[in-house]
Amino acid sequence: MKLAAWNVNSLKVRLDQVLEWLAQQRPDALCLQETKLEDANFPVEAFREAGWQVAYTGQKTYNGVAIVSPHAIDDVQMGIPGFADEQKRLIAGTVKGVRVVCAYTPNGQAVGSDKYAYKLAWLQALHDWLKGEVGAHAQLALLGDYNIAPDDRDVHDPALWAGQVLCSEPERTAFRRFLDLGLVDSYRLFEQPPATFSWWDYRQGGFRRNLGLRIDHVLLSPPLASRCTAAGIDTGPRKHERPSDHAPVWADVSA
DNA sequence: ATGGCCTCGGTTCGAGGA
């Protein structure tokens, strides 16, 4: 089973790239972030014609998340229960017995800002809700754009980013609290090449110079982690014309 | 370098992203 996540930075712009990637990689679940589409405009038919089921919740201009699968997506849930939020940042569904949680964590803008406080509150709410979900679903995966680089290996220039948003200690602590629930960072189960990232700024030739961060993650519950056979980041789509600034991240789990 | 780029809404610029 292949589980993947990709912040596409507008599904309208990236639809053909997503369909191409799906056809090449054949994931069992792909979690999309930043679809930036109202539900009425979601390209359900384009996915269906290519053989994919979709579950989605979105809004105009900002945010928006979706799950794409060749299998049925059951028991779909949108938003974090008990956390009132106008922003469409979370969708969950069950695919082949795996509870797939697709999350788009707020960016946070700058340490100390209102948006940063919202980010930490959102992460706290996600954690508190997940605590119960991990107990209820032995097979659970939390995938998406966390907007957190967990440690300095995940940062092209740790000194430059020290204490900045995406790298600050409260954010890293929030990430570790997901690990404390028993979730495992699938990427770090395996030896990985140094300086591999999932996001590169559009400016400054960020991708060409590999000035990136690893902020997109696939976290697995213990039963899934024990069956994880490979994990990685596919930089191929970042090389396309008109790319998303994020690359797909993925993990394979044996049956 | 107080920036650089991309998307969106909707107009020719500002907000937001990371």
Architecture overview:
- The chain has 255 residues and is an alpha+beta fold.
- The protein is built from 6 helices and 14 strands.
- The protein has helices at residues 11-25, 44-49, 114-136, 158-161, 169-180, 222-225; strands at 2-7, 29-33, 53-57, 65-69, 74-78, 90-95, 98-104, 140-145, 184-185, 199-200, 212-213, 216-220, 228-233, 249-253.
- The strands form 3 sheets. It has a 6-stranded mixed beta sheet with strand order 3-4-2-1-14-13. It has a 6-stranded mixed beta sheet with strand order 5-6-7-8-12-9.
- Strand 7, helix 3 and strand 8 form a beta-alpha-beta unit.
- Helix 3 packs parallel to helix 5.
- The longest helix has 23 residues, at 114-136.
- It is globular, with a radius of gyration of 17 Å.
- The N and C termini lie close together (7 Å).
- The model has no long low-confidence stretch (mean pLDDT 97).
- The structure holds one DNA strand of 18 nucleotides.
Mean pLDDT: 97
Strand order of the largest sheet: 3-4-2-1-14-13
Order of helices and strands: EHEHEEEEEHEHHEEEEHEE
Beta-strand content bin:
25-35%
How can the largest sheet be summarized? 6 strands, mixed
Q: What spatial form do the alpha-carbon principal axes imply? A: globular
- What is the tally of beta strands? 14
Rg (C-alpha, Å): 17 Å
Helix count equals 6
Cα-to-Cα separation, first versus last residue: 7 Å
**What percentage of residues falls in helices of 4 or more residues?**
25-40%
